[in-house]
Amino acid sequence: MASFKLTINNRAYDADVEKDTPLLWVLRDNLGLVGTKYGCGIAQCGACTVHLDGKAVRSCVLPVSAVGKAKVTTIEGLSEKGDHPVQKAWDEVDVAQCGYCQAGQIMTAAALLKENPKPSDEEIVSTMSGNICRCGTYHRIREAVKVAASKTN
Amino acid sequence: MQTSEQTSRRNFIKIAAAAGGGLFLGFNWSNSSALPVVVDAQKVAAGLVNFNSYLSIGTDNVITIISPNPEIGQGIKTAFPMVVAEELDADWKQVKTVQGNLDTGIYERQVTGGSGAVPHSWERLRKAGATARYLLVEAAAAQWSVPASECTTENGKVLHRTSGKSLSYGELAEAASKMPAPAEVKLKKESDFKLIGQSVRNVDNNNIATGKPLFGLDVYREGMLFAMIQRPKAFGLKLKSVQKEAVKSMPGIVDVVTFDNSVAVVGKSTWQVKKAKDALKIEYEKEAELESSADHNRIFQQLMENGEATVRRKNGDVETAFKNAAKVIKSEYQCPFLPHSPLEPMNFFAHVREDGVELIGPTQTPERARTEVAKLTGIAPEKITVEITRQGGGFGRRLAADFVLEAANVSKLVKAPVKVIWTREDDMTGGIYRPAVRYRFEAALDKSGELIGYKLRGVGMNSGNSTREDNFPSGSVENLLIDSVEYKSPITTGPWRAPITNFLAYAEQSFLDEVAEAAGKDPVEFRLALLEKAKKSPVGDIKYDVDRMIGVVKLAAEKSKWGKKKGVYQGFSVYFSHRSYVAQVGEVVMEKGKPVLKNVIAAVDCGIVINKSGSLQQVRGGVVDGLGHAMYGNMTFKDGAPDQRNFNGFRLIRMNEIPEVDVHFVDNGISPTGLGEPALPPAGGAVANAFYKATKQRLRNQPFINEEAFKGIS
Ligand code: FES
Ligand code: FES
C-alpha cells in the first residue's frame, strides 16, 4: 500500500491503495465517485473516461501512481450544477437509453469541444467512435455533440 | 359501491389520506377491472393497510408515481408514469417518478422481458390516473357546491369555467382522499391525449449526465466486501481443487470460498480481488465434451440431414408440391453464439443474515431472484427484499438469476454483505449465450412463379423450438412443413433480445428475397401477394394481423421510395414479433468499389406510441443492435472455451459504422404493444438483401464481415 495525493474536481483527496490500482477503482471504491463507469478494463469502450489536465483518458488503464500532480476531472465535477453545455445537450437531445455509457460519452465529448470547439462531422464521428454504446444511441450522441458545439463559443 | 376490505383486498384500488396530508391512491397493478374500495384512513395510519403501490398527490402539489418494472434502457420509468399522468391530466412538471421494489402482493409481472410491460399495464395505468382524477373533481365540486359534470381538469388543476374558480390538485388532495371511490371510471378518448404521443425526455437524464449512483455496480454499503468469481474456463469442465492459501495472503483478501463449480475471492476492494482471482491456481476435470466451433459446424450439418425432428406446423402436402414444382430453391443460413454484452457487466449485492436477506442490483426478474435465493438459503421469501437498481442494459442476460445466487452464496459463506462483480471477461466467457443455430429453407414454385410449397428446418443448440412456426409466411402457403431439431450442448444459452427471431427473421427474409428473385418478382410485390392470399384464403391458423403487416410493408415501401432511387441498392424485410409489426428497407451505395450501408428506413406498427422520443430511440437502437451483431458479432469456441474474451476480440458496432435510421410510426389508435425488441429482427434481412443487390452475393452466415462479399473490406 502507498498513499497518493490526488486533485479531483478541484478538491484534494488522499488514497491508500496499491500503486498499480487503476484510477477508475480508486475513484469508485475509495473515493465514492461512482459516476465513472467500468465497461471493459482494457481501454476499449470509454465508459471510464475522465479528464487528466483537461484531456480525455481511460481511467481503467491508468495506474493511480501515474496520475502525479495532474488534475483529474470526473463526471461529478464537469460542472457544478450539471449545466455544462454537453450535459445540457445530452438532456435536450434525450440521448440516454440505459445510460451506463453516457458519463464516458459526455466526458469524451467535453474534452473534444474544449480542444476543438467547432469540430466537423468527421471529427465528431472519429473521436466518438472510441466509445461504445451497447444500446446504440449513436445517432443522438452525434446530434448532442453538435448541439453542444453550437452553444459553446 | 364496495366498502369492505374483506372482499379480496388484492383486487381493489385503495384510497386514503396520506400521513402528511394528501391523496394516496394505492392501486393494484394486477387487475385491470379493479373495483375501487374506500379504506379507512385511520387504519392506514395504524399501518393496517399496505400501501406500497401508489400514486400519491401531496399537498405540496408533487405527484409521485411508482414504476414497478425494471428499467434496463427501454424507457419504462418514463413511459409508465406518462400514461398515469395523461388520464390524471397532471402537469408533467409536477410528476416525480420512482422505481418500485419487488412486491408481489401488489404488482404483477414485475419483469422486463418479451416487450410485454406496456401491453400488460396499459389499462391498469390509465385507470389509476382516471380514478384519481375523478376523486379530485368530486372534491372540487363538493367544495364549490357545483355539479361535478361542470368541472374540467387541466395541467394539475380542477376548473369551473362558469365561475372562473380553480384549485390545484395539491389543494384538493386531502379532500379527495375522503371522497368515495367510483365503481367505474371513464377513460379518455385516444384523440384527447395530450401527453401520450409527445416526446418526453427520460426522467433520469439529469442523474445520468451528472454521474449519480444509479446502477447495480454503484451499490456500496457499510462493511460490504467485494467478490469476484472464477468459473470453469471452459464449458464441460468442473472444479477439482483449488489452492486457496497463497491467494488468501494477498493484500486485502479476506477469504477464498467455493460453491458449485465456482471459486470466489472475497476482499476489500475490486482491484485487490481481481488480482487475487487472476493468481488463483485451480484444477479442473472434464465432465462433458469440450466443444469447438468446428464441432458445431459438423453437428449442424449432420443433424440437418439425420436429426430427429419435431414437427411444428404442417399444412397441405409438401411432398407432392415439391414433386410438382417447376423450380425448387434451397438455402441454408447459420449464426454463431453471441454474448449479450450489456455495458454494465453482471453484478449483485446480497446480505444474507439469519433472519432475512437483502438483495440489491440489476435484474430483469426480481421475483425469480427472490425465489431462487429463498431456495438456496432456506429463508422464507417474505423475509427477502429485492431492491431494483437501474440497469446498464440487459438484452435478456439479466433474466437469469445466476449472478444473484452467486452473491447470496458468497454472502452466506462469509457472513457479510457482499457485492459480486463480473469483469468484462467474466461476462463474455460466463455463458448463457444467444445459441448458435442453422436453418434450411426450401421453396417450391410453380410455372407461373407462385409459391406452392415451403419447408423450414431449424437445428438449434439448446434452443428448444428454434422456429416460429406461425409467423409469416405461414398462413399464405398451401403446402408447408416446419420442424426443428434440438442439440444439447454443454455451452449454456438463454434468451437474447428478441429470442430466436433475432436470427430467424434475417434468415427467413433473406430467403424470401431469394424466392422472389427466382420467381422473377419484385420483393415487395411478392410479399404483398402472399399477404393478400393469407387474407383472402388463409391456410391454417394465422396468428399475426395480416392488415397490420400489409400496412407496414406499404409504408416502408412508400417512405423509402422503393425501387425508384438511382444508384441506391435497396433491400426489404418485414417481421412480426412481440406483438408489433416492423418493415425495414436497407440502402447500400457503392463508394470506391465498396458497398456502404447508408440508410435504414423503418415502418413500425406498435399501436399507440406513448413516448415519441423514447420510441424512436428503441427503434433506432434496435436497428443498430440488429445490424451490428449481424455484421460483426462472432463468438467462437476452442475446446469448450470462448475465443473472444473482451471488446478487443468481440466487435461491437461503433458510431462510424451506423447508417442513418429513418423511423415512421403507423398511427392507428390501437392499444400499444412492446417496442424493446421488435425493431431488431428485421434489420439483418433488410441489410443483407441490400448488400445482395449491390454485390450479387448472398450473405448466408453471420457475421457478414466474414463472408465472401466483405473479403478485403473491414
Ligand atoms: S472501462 Fe475503460 S475503456 Fe472500457
Ligand atoms: S445508453 Fe446504454 S450503453 Fe449507452
TrEMBL record, chain A:
SUPFAM superfamilies: 2Fe-2S ferredoxin-like (SSF54292), CO dehydrogenase ISP C-domain like (SSF47741). This is (2Fe-2S)-binding protein. Keywords: 2Fe-2S, Iron, Iron-sulfur, Metal-binding, Oxidoreductase. The keyword Nucleus does not apply. It comes from Dyadobacter sediminis. One of its GO terms (molecular function) is 2 iron, 2 sulfur cluster binding. Residues 2-78 form the 2Fe-2S ferredoxin-type domain.
TrEMBL record, chain B:
InterPro entries: Ald_Oxase/Xan_DH_a/b (IPR000674), AldOxase/xan_DH_MoCoBD1 (IPR008274), AldOxase/xan_DH_MoCoBD2 (IPR046867), AldOxase/xan_DH_Mopterin-bd_sf (IPR037165), N-heterocyclic_Hydroxylase (IPR052516), OxRdtase_Mopterin-bd_su_IorB (IPR012368), TAT_signal (IPR006311), TAT_signal_bac_arc (IPR019546). Gene3D superfamilies: Aldehyde oxidase/xanthine dehydrogenase, a/b hammerhead, Aldehyde oxidase/xanthine dehydrogenase, molybdopterin binding domain. SUPFAM superfamilies: Molybdenum cofactor-binding domain (SSF56003). Pfam families: MoCoBD_1, MoCoBD_2. Residues 210-288 form the Aldehyde oxidase/xanthine dehydrogenase a/b hammerhead domain. It comes from the Bacteria. GO terms for molecular function: oxidoreductase activity. This is Xanthine dehydrogenase family protein molybdopterin-binding subunit. It comes from Dyadobacter sediminis. The lineage of its organism: Bacteria, Pseudomonadati, Bacteroidota, Cytophagia, Cytophagales.
